[in-house]
Structure formats: C-alpha cells, structure tokens
Amino acid sequence: MGGLDAFSLSGKRALVTGAGRGLGAAMARGLADAGARVALVSRNEAELTATAATIGENACVVVADISDSNQTLDLVDRVERALDGPIDIVLHAAGIQHREPAETFGRQAWDDVIATNLTAPFFLSQEIGGRQLTAGRTGSHIFIGSLTSHLSVRGVSAYTASKSGIYGILRNLSLEWSARGVRANGIGPGYIRTALTQSLVDDPDRYRQLLERIPMGRLGSPDDMAGAAVFLASDASSYITGQLLMVDGGWSAS
Q1: Please, what sign has the CA dihedral across residues 159, 165, 167, 169?
Q2: Mean per-residue pLDDT pooled into runs of 10, the chain (254 residues)
Q3: 246 DSSP 8-state letter
Q4: Is residue 254 situated within a structural domain?
Q5: pTM (2 d.p.)
Q6: 194: domain range?
C-alpha cells in the first residue's frame, strides 16, 4: 500500500476512550473519516451518543468506566462484540486534571488522576495487546501524552506524573511488542481548547502569557489532533514506534 492509500483505515476496528467530547471525540471522528469502525467509550452515554451522531454508521457506543481496571476484560469483550470483530487500534484519550500546589495536593486527587490517566491505559492496552499478540495480528496503540511528558507545569503534580509515565509505557510496549507487529506511539498535545484548559482561557493574564509562549500564537483545537491520530493508526506510520509526536504549536521546540 502506497501513497494516500497508506493513510486509509478501511476495514480497521478502533476503540477510543474519552470519546464523548474534546480531543477524544475529534480523534474518533478522524479515525472514522479515514474508514475505521470506531467504538466510542466513556462513562457519559449522552456525550457518546452526541459524538456518534456526528460520525454516523461507523460509530458505536460503549458506556464504561475505564478507571476501574476490574472492568477491563469485560470492556474489551463488549467492544469486540459491538465492532463485530477484534480491535486493531486503541486510542487512549480519556483523561482528568486536578490543579493544586504540590505542598497541599490531596491523596484522593492524586489517586484519581493516576488511575484514569496512567493505570487504565496500561491495563487496557495489556488486554488488547495480549489478544493481538496471541492471534498474531498487528495493532496500533496510541497514547495521549502532554507537554508535561517532557516539561514541568506548576500545580499539576499528578498530571505531570501520569503523562511522564505514559511516555514510559509507550516506549516499553514498543520495545516488547513491535517486533511482533504491535506498535505503540503517542500524541503530545500542547494547550488545546477543551474543558481541561477553560480555566486558563478565562484568566486574561494567564491566557496572554500562554499565547506569547506558543510560537504559532494560538491554542490548538481538538480537530488539530485528528491528523496525527490517523497517521499513527495507519500504515503510513508502519515503521514508527515508541515515539511521542508533539502537536503543540511549536512549544516544545522553542
């Protein structure tokens, strides 16, 4: 497969977590537009249904709490039934945030962020990847990192820890699985206009400082992530593994 055909996801089945809104919804639409059949996963059925309506027949809805690792096996089984076959692509877009100074950062907030942003993606990929490896099938696992996978940001200790850990997970999975056809990569968004960043946008001084720091002079939109997701999911990136592709308007390069 060559040329633009290498970007096609026709015949592929994808699971996207956090697909009800924001980055997850935009990337799910991108995968579907490229031809994939996409299972939209989150806890909020209403949001998932709304996203599915923007995609059409290539989407199905699976309601689940991905932070509960005891549900992982059942979730993968449900998704495979909904997709009428095994999963080729998993995109881990679910994520939460908590802002608090390090000296007062609470244990419950820490545990919640780590459970959703770090532990859940690992065990979900472990289950899906294990099935792919056993069956001798190829696969693409796409994790969502962050600027904080490389850099430090005040007030988000748990988020920084989780996104630094995500970069470690995708490197290790790549090391262990890629020779058997299962690739692991990540996307590192910069500051994107979503619910997680709304408080920063609403602060005029902080927002001005952000724009001054971003070489492109603007925050990203969720749709800016879709092309990277399609690329990493497709054969166009068949010799790319273990990489965190930064989509940040130039922040990490400046």
Answers
A1: negative
A2: 86 98 97 98 97 97 94 97 98 94 96 96 98 98 95 92 96 98 97 85 92 95 97 98 98 92
A3: E
A4: no
A5: 0.95
A6: 3-245
